[in-house]
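For the sake of transparency, this paper describes our internal protein records without simplification. The remainder of this section carries one protein's record, kept here as part of the documentation:
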Amino acid sequence: MPTFARLVAAVLFAALAWWVSQLIVPLMPNERPMGYFAIINAAVGLVMGWRIQGARAGNGYNAAIGISLTTVAAVVFWGLLLNSTIVMVELSLRKSYDGAVEAVVGVVDLMATHGKIMLDPTVIGTLLVGGLAIGMVTEWASRRAY
């Protein structure tokens, strides 16, 4: 059911994912254009904010902290998976893989490679501080919406 807290969480996590994507772009190798990287991540943030953070709003500020960290982890995981899958498809169209199993293993390798790039302190700090702030704002919005 749509609530104001879900809307707030979705919009703010989409904005956080987009902002972090802008921080990641300079860290990526210049081998390929980034294309829809930030938009895909913002869409992931929108869905995860709506489904995880927004759905569990109203349980108190202590719970909001844990839920916001869970939402950040989900955004990172699904963003890595989607973007690595897109890169794998591009590579498979260039005949870089011998078979389907090698392509699936390639997705995991790409997720590890892209995950290492994300270990920049600015990226991690932005995700943590932004996620915690969004959790507090979402909890505040859930209490004020009634």
